[in-house]
Amino acid sequence: APLTDRSIARERPQGDRLELEVRGWAEKEESYQIRLERIYGDPTLDDVWERAARVLDQPWPHESGTELRVRACFVDSGFLQDAVFRFVKGRQDRGVFASKGADNAKQPLSRSSRANRDGVKVFTINPNAFKDTLFARLKRAAPGPGFLHFGAEATTGADDAYFLQFAAETRRVSFANNRPVVSYVNPGKKRNEAIDLYVLNLAALRSMGIAVS
After folding, report:
1. Distances (CA, A) of 109 to 75, 121, 176, 189
2. Quick one: pLDDT at residue 32?
3. Which of 96, 50, 44 is nearest to 75 (CA)?
4. Which of 3, 14, 74, 186 is the most buried (most CB within 10 A)?
5. Distances (CA, A) of 151 to 4, 26, 100, 148, 206
């Protein structure tokens, strides 16, 4: 299926870098990895975020000859919250939003009705719901609804370390008050950015109100 103009990005701050994945979306949430970027530097400094902004603002060529531009981006505010809020505050009208994960969130995705003191309306995500979707889709062997397309490292920037990250977490089901409770654990404390990058890419897509069926 061809890419639509639903190009989505997701940023995750780390101690020494920002990780950003641009992914294009087609019908029924079939997706194509466009670019993985690791922007090294101190995320408390403006220079790192300025480099991230240039990635978000650039056009991405489509095989039809047209250009895609990022229409939505979720930035994880669970780390370096103040820096994230500064970055998104003036970009929310362009589809750049702060997000946070909450395992106990009642809805898979919701947004605060009011801006916080930093002028930011934060999206809350229940990551377990999106991880269930991701790991089910990773098992699909043929292109179609929900399928994840990847490309060569030279084109996308996705290296072996990126793909190994999909194996970092394990799904567990426990019971509380005789009701199943799903959680994902990382027993080896391995890098898991690839999982989070897809989760918030999908959340960014769904924040746009696009039908998932």
Report:
1. 14, 13, 23, 26
2. 96
3. 96
4. 74
5. 17, 16, 29, 10, 24
Distance of CA 172 to the CA centre of its chain: 22
Under DSSP, is residue 48 helix (H, G, I), strand (E, B) or coil?
helix
Residue with tokens 């990551």: 127
Residues recorded for the chain: 213
Give residues with Cβ within 8 angstroms of 173, minimum separation 6. Answer: 180, 181, 182, 183
Show the tokens assigned to 133.
């979707």
Helix axes 193-207, 127-138, angle to 10 degrees: 110
What CA–CA distances, in Å, run from 21 to 108, 123, 178?
21, 18, 39
**What region does 112 belong to: left with phi over 0, alpha with psi -120 to 50, or beta?**
beta
Contact 20, 9 (CB under 8 A): yes
pLDDT of residue 181: 87
For the cut 60, the answer to whether the pLDDT of residue 81 exceeds it is yes
Element (H, E) at 145: none
Nearest to 157, CA basis, from 19, 6, 4, 12: 19
pLDDT (tens digit, 9 = 90+) per residue, 40-75?
999 999 999 999 999 999 999 988 899 999 999 999
